[in-house]
Amino acid sequence: QVQVVESGGGLVQAGGSLRLSCAASGIIFKIKSMGWYRQAPGKQRELVAAITSGGSTNYIDSVKGRFTISRDNGKNTLYLEMNSLKPEDTAVYYCDVKGNWGLDYWGQGTQVTVSS
Hints:
The strands form 2 sheets. Strands 2, 4, 5, 6, 9, 10 and 11 form a 7-stranded mixed sheet that branches. A 4-stranded antiparallel sheet has the order 1-3-8-7, with no helix packed on it. Helices cover about 0% and strands about 55% of the residues. The protein is globular. By secondary structure, the chain is an all-beta fold.
């Protein structure tokens, strides 16, 4: 059974930093990509950053230069280093694991709150 579990969220002041982690277990398929999404109250879920199995990354414009996504392939673990946090970064952050044949698994999310 595949499980995706996020951790590392919390409350931080504007300008602060947080590091999110995502541990995927029970993976018996080849992972194509892993990514971080976020959803703020009243807004649609959006892709924040993603990384492919080959290490290629992409970021939403609003986090470029502040967030860094990384991955430990051997441990099926994903990270998101978030610096210079802003109140508009407040959201529930979700980890997504994509494999071949349309396989797609999500975590339950971790709350990030940035106070001004």
